[in-house]
Amino acid sequence: MKPASQTSALGYFTWAFITTAAGLALGAWLGWTTTGTLGGMATVFFVCTVLAVLEISLSFDNAIVNANKLKEMTPVWQHRFLTWGIVIAVFGMRIVFPLLIVVIAANIGPIDALVLAASRPEEYARIMHEAHLPIAAFGGTFLMMVGLKFFFDHEKDIHWIASLERGMSRFATIKGVEIAFVLVLILVFSSFLHGEEATTFVYCSIYGLLTFLAVEVVGGLLDASQQTMSAAARGGLGAFIYLEVLDASFSFDGVIGAFALTQNLFVIAIGLGIGAMYVRSMTIMLVEKGTLAEYRYLEHGAFYAILILSVIMYCQTLVHIPEVITGLGGAALIGISLWSSIRHNRRERSEHVNA
C-alpha cells in the first residue's frame, strides 16, 4: 500500500471503479443473454447499480469498524485481510452463503442449489426469505455484541453522547453486563413471536452470542500465544477471523434485502460484489490517511449505526423494514458524527489560536 501522502482520495477507489465498469458490463451482458431485449439489458444494468448503492450505504459502518481493527493489525495481516478477505467477502458471502442457505433449507446438494438459482429463481428467493428469521436473529445478536463491546469499555475516555456513554463506561466494570442486556432483549423479542418461530429466534440468537464469544476467545488465544505464534502472526490471525465473521454479519441484511429487487443470484452477486469493493477501498483510505484519529467521533457514529442495525434486524423478525431505511439511517448517523468531529476540531484550533 502506498503512503497516504502519495495517494489522492480518488486514487484509493481505482480498483473499485474498474470493478464497477466490469460488473455493470457483465450485468448488461447477462440481461441481454437472458432476455434478448434492450429493455431487459437496461433493467438488469439498473438493478446491479441499485444493489451496489444499497451495499455501499449499508456498509459505511462496516468500513469504519474494519479500519478500527486493521490499525491494530500487523502489516502482513492487513495485506492478507485486504486480499484474501475481499475474496471471501465477495465470493463467500455474496455467492456461497446464499447457496449454502438453500442447501440446508431445501436439503439439496450445492450443484442442485445452483441449478435452482438459475432455472427457478422464484423458488430460490422463497427459500431465502423463509430463512430470514434465523439469519436476522443470529446476525442481529452478533452485531449487537460488537456495538455494545465498544461502549461498555471502562478504559474508553472519548465520548460523543457524553451522558449516555459515560454511564455505559461505568457499568462496564460489571462483568457480563452487555451479555445480560442482549439476553433480556432476546427474551423480549421472542415473547412477540409464537411457537416454532419463537424457539428458532431464541436458538439462533444464542448461536450468534456464542459465535461472538467464541471469536473473542479464539482471537485472544491466537493473538496472545507468544510461544506458538510467529511475530508476524501475532496481533493478526485473531483479528482476521473477527473481521471475517463481522463482515458476514453485515452482509446478511444486504443479501436478504437484495432478493426484494431481483431473484437472480448472479445479478445479486454482481451488484453486491461491486459494493464490497468500495467498502475495501474506504477501509484502506481510512487506515492510511488516519481518518479515524483525525475525526474523533467517527467511530462512535459507526458503532451507534451497528447497534441500530442490530435492533432493526431483530424488528425485521416481526415486521418488514425497507433496507433503504437501514442504509440511510446508518449513513445519517455517520454523517452527524463526522460533522460533530469537524466542529470539535474547529473549536480546538480556535482555542489554540486564542491561547
Automatic annotation (TrEMBL):
Coiled coil location: none
This protein's record includes keyword Chaperone: no
Alphabetical UniProt keywords: Membrane, Transmembrane, Transmembrane helix
InterPro entries named in the record: DUF475
Sequence intervals crossing the membrane: 12-32, 38-60, 81-111, 172-194, 200-219, 256-280, 301-319, 325-342
Transmembrane helix in keyword set: yes
Name of the molecule in the record: DUF475 domain-containing protein
